[in-house]
Amino acid sequence: MQRKKLMAANWKMYKTPDETRGFFTIFLPLVRDHDRDEIVVCPPYVDLATALESVRGSNIAVGAQNVHWGKEGAFTGEISPTMLLAVGCTHVIIGHSERRQYFGETDDTVNLKLKAVLETSLTPIVCVGEVLEEREAGLTEDVLRRQCTRAFYKISAKKATKLVIAYEPVWAIGTGKTATPQIASEAHRLIRSEAAKTFGQEFADRLRILYGGSVKPENAKALMSEDELDGALVGGASLDPKSFAAIVKY
Ligand code: PGA
């Protein structure tokens, strides 16, 4: 099944609005005619307005890195799906391992966020992935199954049409250690079969599963050549416009 790849940048806590503008000044001309893949950049909240202004009229979408599940309320420091839509975001990352590791994100909050986002027109990118100890203990499959089942809890295939998953083995994030294309494909197949169990085979065949974890211009081609890999979620290497453009154009 031919799935259009999604090449996503996750800037994490990097760049000011000025630096954001500077990034797009170099990045946009490099990918101007690129329509083979979808491209989305997810900067910090404070850069969203600048990013959206910079990409206006281009083939680049803008997303956020996190979201709350409520519409509005007394939740200091949080941002709702409706707010992201109101400024012009089209995508949002949910359950990144850094949120799970440092900010108390759980499988249950991932599920709440996913449900809320699927009530809107935003495209959710749900991150799953095992830590090194889990991989070494042979628990990768159990972890991925649990993260998927709980993320998908009480969500229908009809509601989930826009769902995108990112497989991000935590041991590969920011470490320079990339999963081999084979290791990534194996995990992607498992995630796809979990999606098939919940949402049906047809849905699973259409589901885009991105790979994330030390994707670089040097390894993008080998990874993206795997049928199972429907794009990339790129952290460190997406901060430099030339390097992210090289990955997009692998
Ligand atoms: P990395 O991060 O590319 O720097 O490994 C990927 C991610 O955390 O999304």
List bound small molecules. 2-phosphoglycolic acid
Task: Find the CATH topology.
Answer: TIM Barrel
Gyration radius, rounded: 17 Å
User: H/E series, N to C?
Assistant: EHEHEHEHHEHHEHHEHEH
Beta-strand residue fraction: 15-25%
Count of structural domains: 1
The N- to C-terminal Cα distance equals: 20 Å
The order of strands across the largest sheet is 1-2-3-4-5-6-7-8
**Please, what is the average pLDDT?**
97
CATH homologous superfamily placement: Aldolase class I
Largest sheet, in brief, is:
8 strands, parallel, barrel
The total count of strands amounts to 8
CATH architectural label: Alpha-Beta Barrel
By secondary-structure content and strand pairing, the structural class works out as alpha/beta
In the CATH scheme, the class would be Alpha Beta
Which outline best applies? globular
Poorly predicted regions are: none
Tally of contiguous helical segments: 11
Helix content: 40-55%
